Amino acid sequence: MFDVVDLEKYLAYFRRLPEVAPRYGGRMAAFGRFRDNVAGDLAPRQVLFLVEWDSEEAFNRFRDDPELADLHPLRESGTASYVWQTFDGSDLSDPTDVSLEDVLAVLKP
After folding, report:
1. Contact 61/20 with Cβ under 8 angstroms?
2. For residue range 26-35, what is the model confidence (pLDDT) as tens digits?
3. What is the pTM of this model?
4. Distance between CA 49 and CA 26 in Å, rounded?
């Protein structure tokens, strides 16, 4: 989640992402603009961008690869109030394939 502060820089980042992220095990899953703060105490951001990664290691390779040293500064300088979080979870593309044990594994600390 983030606010756009320099559209050109962010677009330069985003233009490369569809080609780069899959090489590191990333899949762009969702992208949207803020509509309404329904509940919660996190300050709203303009944009939500969700990328699904094959693993934590895949995400770390993307984040830390020196070959992408010119890519990440475009995101960083093109945005503000950036929230970058990672989550473990289950694939819900077929909700009938998710068991109660899958849900409990996410809910238990």
Report:
1. no
2. 999 999 999 9
3. 0.80
4. 12
Residue 49's SS3 state is strand
Provide φ and ψ at 79, rounded to 5°: -130, 165
Q: DSSP code of 73?
A: H
**d(Cα 75, Cα 42) in Å, to the nearest integer?**
21
Which H or E run includes 16?
helix 7-23
pLDDT in tens, 47-96: 999 999 999 999 999 999 999 999 999 999 999 999 988 888 777 778 88
Residue 107 identity: L
Burial 55-86 (b: 16+ CB within 10 A, else e): eeebbebbeeeeebeebeebbeebbeeeeeee
Phi and psi angles of residue 27, each rounded to the nearest 5 degrees, phi first: -130, 125
Element (H, E) at 33: strand 26-33
